[in-house]
Amino acid sequence: MKQLLILSGKGGTGKTTIASAFIKLAEAKAYADCDVDAPNLHLITEQTSQSRKTDYYGLPKAEINTDLCIECDQCRQNCRFNAISADGKYKVDSFACEGCGVCELVCPAGAIALKPAVAGELMLYKSEGEVFSTAQLKMGSGTSGMLVTEVKKQMKSAAADVELAIIDGSPGIGCPVIASLSGVDMVLIVAEPSISGISDMERIINTAAKFGIKTAVCINKFDTNIQNTEKIESFCIEHGLAYMGRIPFDSEAVKAINNGQTIVDIDCLSGAAVKAVYNRTMELLLEEGDGP
Amino acid sequence: MRIAVLSGKGGTGKTLVSINLAAATETSAYIDCDVEEPNGYLFFKPRNIQEEEVSVRIPKVNDKLCSGCRKCVDFCKFNALAYIKDKLIIFEDICHSCGGCILLCPEQALTEKEKVIGKVQKGISDQVTVYTGVLNTGEPSGVPIIKKLLAEAKLEITKTTLIDCPPGSACTVMESIKDADYCILVAEPTLFGVHNLNIVYELVKLFNKPFGVVLNKCLDGEDLSEKFCLEKGIRILGRIPFDQELGRLNSNAEIAVRKSEKYRRIFSSLLETVEKEAHHEAASDS
Fold first, then answer.
1. What is the model's pTM?
2. Which of A20, A271, B39, B285 could be cross-linked to A196 through a Cys-Cys bond (beta carbons 3.0 to 4.6 Å apart)?
């Protein structure tokens, strides 16, 4: 399976808009949404069947049995996450608790146990030979990287013999992004021609480079700032990054998305431009003899 | 007064709103908690920068003392330790710095070292004190940097403080809004925008934070986020029109209120509404 991951660093540059167009153009049989704390891909990819839902257990959470607690304060003193408070009874803040188990280890009274905790929900849609894997992290939860890994695992096991998978990523450069990078064949970065967008693009390119993954760039809403678009294009040339093309700002695109359609479902400028970007990206993805 | 600006979805205008509100205030502090992709400093271009590294504690092993009992390996919930070929290996990027392995080791073979994961910066831009956190690329978690930022900025307690949050609804956002007195949710009028607005709406409700919504990129016609607010009875603090001039200023990392009287008026009036709301909430709370 060849896996294409779509990332951006900065949020709101158009990852999901472009991923959904790619899925349509490729008639992809496997795709996934790895933006587990704000997933959107399901809103725009028609799903005819019900999803199979499974609870996702993140790390366990500590619980103090106050009947056994001798209030020795050991747990509070040793917790590095300030998750234990002692106003009256000793208590664990389940949002702050990372489930490391140190409190359980140091408790001399055996009053603390780690309890499994649901940290999100995995969803798998399967219909007409198509597999779509997505998830929703429980709010404020800290194990998004692990959930991203589960989303990809779920997709791969349900679509083992599919040749191409398209994965929509999350903004940023931290744990969910790092988890989404693992095992993919190529990253397409959707850049935006703003000073912020350029700074964020450079940081995600550096991150992908740390993991040695083939990286290409396209520019969305290129006409909102031509000067910055040209800056990004010269940046790509200078750094030997594969450049996949420009997509214009298009109010028709907003309308399509609001109707739950992809930009290639309607006849519009951004849809035509994304086709050219798609063709170049596929060519690069399927190129043989890459990598070390 | 600490005001957190968040959105769920990326690119809705969190930074636009927080920098312009900070710049419209007589004296303020701005804290960029989006440490994975910090952008606020690009707008403020702060001077007199003071910088401090942020590090976490990571175990290191003295091979001579390690007996190979694997107690640490079995204990670590994050699988950050492995014993392979008669040697203890530590995966630093996975370690959560809980310190459990060190407490546990019967041979005292494990000690801790500091590992730099990023930095915090403090600088001045006109009347705004600008705090920025930067996570090093390849590092998984910015939470320790956000903690450090908010602790440093505690000294600014007398000022209006704008906290620019990361996108999403995970641990980094939770950390950023923890001590906020009021939350501004910035929403976009799209299907994606409203879906993610719903997520952060649930988040601020869960944490019992007073909040209101700023509608950004407003176009003529139906605004799905506005409809959502009306249905849920959510306070709409203001509307920022979709505007090419504002888009151009913003894409060139210019602060709109410092460039044009028109935007100064828009954001000053938004600031007034937010402060009134926040004080009202604080008063009705006590």
1. 0.93
2. B39
Q: Give the dihedral of Cα atoms B167, A271, A285, A217; nearest 10 deg.
A: -50
CATH of domain B63-108: 3.30.70.20
Question: Any CB–CB contact under 8 A between B253 and chain A?
Answer: yes
ipTM of the complex: 0.91
B residues 72..111 contacting A (CB < 8 A): 75, 77-78, 96-100, 103-104
Residues 217-246, chain B: which have Cβ within 8 Å of A?
Answer: 219, 222, 224, 244
pLDDT tens, B71-118?
999 999 999 999 999 999 999 988 999 999 999 999 999 999 999 999
Instruction: Nearest by CB to B169, from A140, A206, A225: name it.
Output: A140
A156: domain CATH number is 3.40.50.300
For residue B190, the chain A residue with the least C-alpha distance is A258
Whether residue A205 is found in the same domain as residue A277:
yes
Shared-domain flag, residues A17 and A81: no
- The residue out of A116, A135, A164 marking a domain boundary is A116
**Inter-chain contact A175–B196, Cβ cutoff 8 Å?**
no
N-to-C CA span, chain B: 15
Which has the closest alpha carbon to A44: A73, A14, A21?
A: A21
Whether A169 contacts A4, CB under 8 Å: no
Regarding whether A91 and A202 lie in a shared domain, the answer is no
Domain extent listing, chain B = 2-54+117-285, 63-108
A12–B37 CB contact, under 8 Å: no
The closest alpha carbon to A8, from A198, A186, A152, A185, belongs to A198
- Residue B149: closest CA among B119, B181, B111, B192: B119
pLDDT tens-digit profile of B201-233? 999 999 999 999 999 998 877 889 999 999 999
